[in-house]
Amino acid sequence: MSAAATREGAALKCVCFMGGIINRLQQSPNGDPSTVAEFAYTKTQFKDLAAFAIDQARRAGASDAVVEISEGQGLSVNVRKGRVEQVEHNTDKGLDVTVYAGLRQGHASTSDFSDGAIQRTVQAAFDIARFTAEDDCAGLPEPELFAGRVADPGLFHPWDLDVTGAVELASRTEAAAFAVDTRVRNSEGASVSTQQGHFLLANSRGFSNGYATTRHSLSCVPIAGRGADMQRDYWFSSRRDAAKLASPEAVGRYAAERALSRLRARRVPTGTYPVLFEAPLATGLIGALVHAASGGALYRKTSFLVDQLGQPVMAPHLDLLEDPKVPDGMASSPFDDEGVRTHARRVVRAGRLEGYFLSTYSARKLGMVTTGNAGGAHNLALTSRRTRPGDDLPGMLRKLHRGLFVIELIGHGVNYVTGDYSRGAMGFWVEGGEIQYPVQEITIAGNMRDMLLAIEAVGADVYHGGSRSTGSILIPGMKVAGS
Question: N or C: which terminus of the chain carries fewer CB neighbours within 10 A?
C-alpha cells in the first residue's frame, strides 16, 4: 500500500473515533482564567438605573414597565497562515424599556445611561404604546410565576487573556492543523474569542435580578488538497470556563484530520438508505422539534406539531429533558427573559410530547401558562432507553451497517408547516459497518415528523456543544439523491 493510501485510510478512520476524541479534548489551554472582572457598572448601579426608569414610566402614565440593562466586553483574534488577520475589542451597553398602557405596548432603547437619556427613552416607549392597537394577551407574567430570591448561577469565569496571548493560542491552533499532513495547504484561519457580560432584569411588579456570564472559544478551519480535489472542515471548543476548553493543538489537529478524511469524495447512487447523523449535526434535529413546539409557531399554526401535546412525536424509546441548572451550561438560567422561574422537566417522555416552549404572550394566545421559555430552551438532552456503553461511534456505524454517515449539512430545508425536510449533505458511505469513502454533492430528504418517530438509535457518543446535547442519531430510511 502506498504512503498516500495509508494516510487517506488513517484520515477516514479518525472520524470513527470522534466520540473518544471529544472526551480527550478536555485539556486546558495556556492562560489561566482570572476571577477579576472589569465592568464599568455594578449590579447595584444597574438596580438604581432600573428603578429610575420604572419610576419615570409610572410618572408618564404607564400601567406597567420592564427594564433590562446590560454591559459586555470581549476580545476576538483571527490568525490565517501564521499572520494576524483581525484583532477586535468590543464593548457595549444598553438599556431596553418596555412600557404598557393597559393592553397597549411600546418599546425603546438607549446606550446612554444619563438621567435625561433614560427619561427620553421611557417617554418614547410610552408614546409608541399610546398609538399601538390593544392586545389582550399583552402584559407581564403573573407575579406568582416570577423567580424569587435566587443564588448566582455560577456562569461567570473571566479569562485574563490579552491580545498577545490570544494570538499565540490561535497560532498554535492553526500550526497544529498544518503539522498533521503536507496536504493541508491552506486555511480559513484559527480564531480565539473571549466574551463577558452582566445584566439586570427588573419590572414594576417587584422583580429585579441579574447575573454575569462568560463565553470563550477556540476554532480552526483548515483546507486540504489541491486543484479540483480540495476540502475544508472545522472544529471548535466553546465553554463558559476557559480552563475547560480543548487544547489548541487538539482543536487544530482534529480539524485537519476531518478535512483530510473528505478528500476524493464522490456521489452515491440515488436511493433510499439508512442515515446516521453525526452527533454535532444530530442536535439540529432537536432544534427542529423545539422550533415546531415553540409558542409562536403553534399559535400561528405554522408548525407540524399543532395540537400534538400528549401525542407521540418521537420514537417510544426516547426522552427529551430540559435542565436550566446544569453547572456552567451554555443555556443555564434561574429565570427566563421575563423573570419567570425555570425548572427541570421532561419535554418528551417515552416519545410523547409533554410540554411546549412558551413565553407569557404565546401561552396566553394558546390559553395556557408560560413554561419559562421566553428567550428559548434551556439545556436540552436527548436520551434513549436503548443506548448502551458500547454504542460509541464505531458501534453506531455497525448498527448503520450499510448506508450514509452524514457529517455536514447545507441549507435550511425544513418546512415547519408540513415537516418536509430536504438538505444538501456530505459525509461517508458505510458498508459492513466500516467507512468506505467520503461522499459529497448529494441531497437527503424526508419528513421531520416521520424522521423523529422513526429514530432507531441514539449513540453513547454524546456531544455537548451548546444548548442541546445528543449522541449520533440513526434513522432507518431516508431518500438520497445522488448520481
Answer: N
Distance CA 318, CA 348 (A): 7
pLDDT at 438 over 80: yes
Bridge partners (DSSP) of residue 420 are: 447
- Give the pLDDT of residue 391: 96
The pLDDT value given to residue 245: 96
Backbone angles phi and psi of 479, in degrees to 5: -75, 130
In this prediction, residue 151 has a pLDDT band, given cuts at 50, 70 and 90, of confident
**How many CA atoms within 13 Å lie on the side-chain side of 161?**
34
* Selection from 217, 184, 181, 178 nearest residue 82 by Cα: 178
The string of pLDDT tens digits covering residues 206-248 is 999 999 999 999 999 999 999 989 999 999 999 999 999 999 9
Q: In terms of pLDDT, which residue wins out, 26 or 53?
A: 53
What rounded mean pLDDT belongs to the chain? 92
pLDDT of residue 50 exceeding 60: yes
Q: Which residues, in sequence order, are bridge partners of residue 84? A: 79
Q: Give the integer Cα–Cα distance in Å for 144 and 466.
A: 30
Residues 6+ apart with CB under 8 A from 271: 479, 480, 482
Between 16 and 158, where is the model more confident?
Answer: 158
pTM: 0.91
